[in-house]
Amino acid sequence: MLKLLPKFPFRWVWLTGGIFLLLFIVLLLSRFMLHMEIDSKNVTAFSLISLLLAIAAGIGGFFGGTTYFSVSLTFYAGGVFYLLYLSWTRANDGWSDLTSIISFLFVAGLGIVFGVVAQLIRILTKRQ
């Protein structure tokens, strides 16, 4: 297993901020790849999505849920690659902007759910 920070240090805030920045840049990059206009509403929505997803992953690690953090971050990475793939190939012409962001959010949501399940399984197996 990946050696992560111990629970409760302030460095988790920096790690969460890095995840936020990375997700925000990728979401903006996908719009640039689709040659779409970006206005303040897009920037606000992308920053809110990035912030919520970064906090969802970071808070688990902050409280010692390294399994949750690892699983959710792995799914985030998969979602990012799928988002960029859909944006690059314009797989659904005319709908690429919507399908790429929804597919990313779906994969990220799966990561959170599977991360919670994996963390619960780890907790239960440690107790026995």
UniProtKB/TrEMBL annotation:
The chain crosses the membrane at residues 12-33, 45-63, 68-88, 100-121. Keywords: Membrane, Transmembrane, Transmembrane helix. This is Putative membrane protein.
